[in-house]
Write a structure and sequence with these properties.
alpha+beta; 3 strands; single chain
Length: about 70
């Protein structure tokens, strides 16, 4: 693909309105501070991100009483 796309400019993808990005741990899926080494970027609906961030799902180690919820 490098050869096929050598003259094509790189386009930065911009999430649609209502979608936010956050850094997560690839091992646990938990939220991490931006710029954490080894973190990966994940996309969330804004309301789901706010719910995750305020409900303790970003804490390590995992909480023993986590509650699952449907994000779709």
């Amino acid at each position: 693909m490098r050869v096929a796309l050598k003259d094509v400019p790189v386009v930065e993808l911009v999430p649609p309105p209502g979608i936010v990005t956050a850094s997560i741990s690839p091992a646990t899926g938990r939220l991490l501070p931006e710029g954490t080494p080894g973190a990966m970027t994940e996309y969330f609906k804004r309301e789901d991100y706010e719910r995750i961030a305020t409900s303790g799902f970003d804490l390590d180690p995992p909480l023993s009483n986590e509650e699952a919820f449907d994000i779709f």
